[in-house]
Amino acid sequence: MIDLAQLLRARAGEQYALYERYVNPQMARVLRTIGFDRPYARAEGCLLFDQEGRDYLDMLSGWGVFNIGRNHPAAIKMITDLLASQSPNLVQMDAPLLAGLLAEALVRHAPAGLEAVHFTNSGTETTEAALKFARYATKRTRLLACRNGYHGLTYGSLSMMGSDFFREGFGPFLPGCHTVPFNDLGALERELAPGNVAAFITEPIQGNGVIIPDRNYLSEAKRLCERHGTLLIVDEIQTGLGRTGTLFACDRRCSRRSITRWTGA
Ligand SMILES: Cc1ncc(COP(=O)(O)O)c(C=O)c1O
Q1: Residue having the nearest C-alpha atom to atom 9 of ligand 1
Q2: At how many degrees (to 10) do helices 185-192 and 217-227 cross?
């Protein structure tokens, strides 16, 4: 069996050469050019450490995925406890206890009306699933997103992409996908009015530029969607859990009742 710790020690410092040879030569060159080619050896909380023990404050935080910091002791304990428990993982066909427990906890904290959970492996896969649910449930095909929005890089998500930068060279995309300006309820209503839009997808705060809409944008968009039979998909992948001051970002603008649920006030 491979001794992982020994392997990592023996090959320490080779990461950029290996990445350049086997993964993405251009990325390795870019990192070298901008001076980001540090051979990080360890990470803790918001800090990265190189082989000499110098620390670096990681302001990118994995584009926001390290919400609780890297290698948080509670997360390590949870994962090692699970592995030690020899859980019967990925039994086909089965209804896993852990999935049920996590779904139960999420539903308990989710905004009212969200009563079931569909698990996915990534943000873009979540978008894909939401678009499929929407088309299937409404029997409509048109899909609406916001300009400057970002929902992932697989084909469905890319079809809903609000900027051309990521799309160049990858077309054609899914038919029936359109964009409206972010934070523009008039434009949204005009698109919804024909009654043929399956779903409108938006971020509560646009990650690209950190653009915060008017206070009532999300609640009014919800009202318009309900009036025209369109499903509202709130993409909270970048805003994450608790990053905007409430557990779910869509609750930021909601009633005091739902806000007090998180704070216990
Ligand atoms: C708002 C939003 N939606 C979707 C995604 C896609 O997530 P992933 O990179 O996990 O596919 C991202 C990624 O940054 C995002 O910011």
Answers
A1: 123
A2: 10
Whether 20 contacts 2, CB under 8 Å? no
Closest ligand 1 atom, residue 125 Cα = 11
Beta strand pairing status for 197-202 and 177-180? unpaired
Whether the pLDDT of residue 265 is over 50: the answer is no
Q: 61-84, pLDDT tens digit by residue?
A: 999 899 999 999 999 999 999 999
- What domains appear along the chain, each with residue ranges and CATH number? 4-78 (no CATH), 87-119 (no CATH), 122-263 (3.40.640.10)
- Residue 240, classified by CB atoms within 10 Å of its CB into exposed (0-12), middle (13-18) or buried (19+), is middle
Q: Whose CA is nearest to atom 4 of ligand 1?
A: 151
Looking at ligand 1, which residue's alpha carbon is closest to its atom 16?
A: 238
**Residue 230: per-residue pLDDT:** 98
Which residues, listed in sequence order, are joined to residue 45 by a DSSP beta bridge? 70
For residue range 104-137, list pLDDT tens digits in order.
999 999 998 999 999 999 999 999 999 999 999 9
